[in-house]
């Protein structure tokens, strides 16, 4: 059986939604356990749970070009 390829969907003015198995690592190269099949990754840089999104983009007025 072939593993499903991950997909990355940028949400306008919001996070990157990643679906599927991925290999997340810290800036030091340490693995970050993936507890869910779908995760939201921060793009605004203000999340308190980086690399994951905590919704802070809404309060900060974060906007994307897409």
Structure overview:
The chain has a 3-stranded antiparallel beta sheet, with no helix packed on it. Strands 3-4 form a two-stranded antiparallel sheet. Helix content is 8%, strand content 24%. A hairpin with a 5-residue loop joins strand 1 (7-10) and strand 2. The longest helix has 5 residues, at 56-60. It contains 1 helix and 5 strands, in the order E-E-E-E-E-H.
Tell me the major beta sheet: 3 strands, antiparallel
What form results from the Cα inertia axes? globular
**For the CA atoms, what is the radius of gyration?**
13 Å
User: What's the overall average pLDDT, rounded?
Assistant: 91
Q: Give the spatial strand order of the biggest sheet.
A: 1-2-5
- In whole angstroms, the N-to-C terminal distance is 36 Å
**Beta-strand percent range:** 15-25%
| Number of E-type strands | 5
Annotation field: number of helices: 1
List its salient traits.
two-stranded antiparallel ribbon, 66 residues, three-stranded antiparallel beta sheet, single chain, 8% helix, 5 strands, mainly beta, 1 helix, 24% strand
Helix-strand blueprint:
Layout lengths: L6 E4 L5 E4 L4 E2 L5 E2 L5 E4 L14 H5 L6
Q: In brief, what are we looking at here?
A:
The chain has about 70 residues and is mainly β. Helices cover about 10% and strands about 25% of the residues.
